[in-house]
Write a structure and sequence with these properties.
The protein is α/β, with parallel strands linked by helices. It has 2 domains: 83 residues, Rossmann fold (3-Layer(aba) Sandwich), CATH 3.40.50.720; 181 residues, Vaccinia Virus protein VP39 (Rossmann fold, 3-Layer(aba) Sandwich). Helices cover 29% and strands 22% of the residues. The chain has a 7-stranded mixed sheet with strand order 9-8-7-10-11-13-12, sandwiched between helices. A 6-stranded mixed sheet has the order 3-4-2-1-5-6, sandwiched between helices. Helix 7 runs parallel beside helix 8. The longest helix is centred in the middle third of the chain and has 16 residues. The two termini are 23 Å apart. The structure holds S-adenosylmethionine (SAM). The site of S-adenosylmethionine (SAM) has 21 residues, from strand 8.
Length: 277
């Protein structure tokens, strides 16, 4: 599988750390930094260029690792770089979750773990689009009711009252989600109530993100995906520390205890992570 070629605009410590975090996900062919000079031609064995036009090969994406993202993005677009080619890894919302996913995916790629990828609980695809970006050649399953929570998932800990459902109104649209993906042709939309939406589906997985908030689908997701996770793969479950969805933690703990499995938690990204070895 060919890795997509990227350049990182900004070669200070943030750019350098970013390059390390994604070194197996992308082929980082250069840094762009105005401090590049005859004496300053590389950073950590990665070529350093003064300008995008100096990069000798065609790249798939430019990742901006500088404070003035919008200003630089505008400049690139004015210079004719397509908007979609400029990646925004600032993630003002759920920044730590995206960083965690990049770290996990980087290890999956380093170890060449085979398998498809999936997200259970997609909403508008704000996370799924990045999972799809990191795995351009793999099937990416997108599971969601696309009509919000289902009354079958209500339990003692989550009443799913009309007020709750009105506020947490997850009613996205599969077409719109697909439109936001980097490689929609690799995506398989699994619309409907999980686990019914599986419909006997069989596959193996390298990376799965479970983000469906409620106890029952989280538990059902772990029951389905964990046995199908390949060695070296990861399942990240969101909301472990979320006070709004305390049952997410309960589902993770119940599953782990039932099968005597270890997991790690990360407070900052609000995640629990299962691996397979
Ligand atoms: C918090 S949102 C997902 C957010 C998304 N992962 C992101 O990062 O933007 C939770 C989603 O889980 C979905 N969901 C909850 N229970 C489900 C079930 N039993 N089957 C399918 N989807 C479900 C909801 O429809 C909702 O879109």
């Amino acid at each position: 599988m060919d890795k997509r070629k990227v350049v990182i605009h900004g070669a200070d410590i943030y750019g350098e750390k970013l390059a390390k975090r994604i070194e197996y996900i992308f082929d980082v062919v250069g840094f762009i930094d105005r401090r590049a000079s005859e004496k300053n031609r590389e950073k950590n064995n990665i070529p350093l260029y003064k300008d995008y036009e100096d990069v000798p090969e065609k790249v798939d994406f430019i990742i901006l690792a500088i404070p003035d993202f919008n200003g630089q993005q505008r400049e690139y677009v004015k210079r004719g770089v397509p908007f979609e080619k400029i990646l925004d890894f600032r993630h003002p919302y759920d920044y730590e979750k995206h960083i965690l996913h990049q770290c996990l995916v980087n290890e999956v790629m380093r170890r060449k773990v085979p398998g498809a990828v999936a997200e259970l609980g997609v909403d508008y695809g704000d996370t799924a689009k990045y999972i799809n970006l990191y795995f351009p050649d793999r099937t990416c399953y997108l599971f969601d009711t696309f009509s919000g929570f289902d009354q079958r998932d209500k339990d003692e800990s989550q009443a799913l009252t009309p007020e709750f459902l009105e506020f947490y109104n997850f009613r996205s649209n599969a077409e719109r989600v697909l439109d936001r993906m980097f490689y929609p042709e690799k995506c398989v939309v699994k619309a409907g109530y999980f686990p019914e939406s599986l419909n006997g589906m069989e596959d193996e997985f390298a990376f799965v993100h479970i983000d469906c908030d409620l106890y029952k689908p989280i538990l059902a997701g772990l029951e389905y995906f964990y046995p199908r996770l390949n060695k070296g793969g990861y399942i990240a479950v969101h909301d472990f520390y979320n006070i709004l969805y305390p049952q997410a933690k309960e589902a993770v703990r119940e599953f782990a205890d039932k099968y005597n499995l270890a997991y790690v938690t990360d407070f900052f990204s609000d995640s629990a992570i299962f691996s397979k070895d």
